[in-house]
Amino acid sequence: VRPLGYVAMMPPALPYPLALVYVSGVIEIALGIGVLIPRLTRLAAWGLVALLIAVYPANLYHALSGGIRHPELPAVFANPVMAWVRLPFQFLFIAWAWWYTRPTTTD
After folding, report:
1. Does residue 12 sit in helix, strand or coil?
2. What is the pLDDT of residue 6?
3. Is the pLDDT of residue 70 over 90?
4. Total-model pTM
5. Which of 13, 27, 65, 88 gets the highest tally of CB atoms within 10 A of its CB?
6. CA distance linking residue 90 with residue 52, whole number of Å
7. Handedness of CA 58, 59, 65, 69 (dihedral sign)
8. Terminal Cα-to-Cα distance of the chain (whole angstroms)
9. How many CB atoms lie within 10 A of CB 73?
């Protein structure tokens, strides 16, 4: 609902940053709902793995930029240390999503 702050985090080389923010947000919501539906959990989890990998360049750009100050972003996004601390968590979230790609006993 406040996309311009996230547009500021986008690497300048990416085209149509506002559209990418909207598309990634819609995909994130859809996949989040998908993991709650047992029939779709594995597929949605693979989608989340792909999404988390796809948005990593923006997080890396954010860290390399020393944090992003924007009125639509929480103050923590302006903290350069926190920008670097976020990066390893992305891998934790990828692993967490990957965990749900495994077949269950009902599959």
Report:
1. coil
2. 87
3. no
4. 0.85
5. 27
6. 7
7. positive
8. 37
9. 18
Instruction: Tell me the C-alpha distance between 64 and 87, whole Å.
Output: 11
* Closest residue by Cα to residue 90 from 48, 44, 42: 48
Contact 64, 84 (CB under 8 A): no
Interatomic CA distance for residues 68 and 9, integer angstroms: 7
Residue 68 has what pLDDT? 83
Task: Give the whole-angstrom CA distance, residue 107 versus residue 100.
Answer: 12
107 falls in which pLDDT band (50, 70, 90)?
Answer: low
State the pLDDT at residue 106: 63
Backbone angles phi, psi at 96, to 5 degrees: -65, -45
CA gap 99, 41 in Å, rounded? 11
Using DSSP's 3-state secondary structure scheme, residue 39 falls into: coil
16-41 per-position pLDDT tens digit: 999 999 999 999 999 999 999 999 99
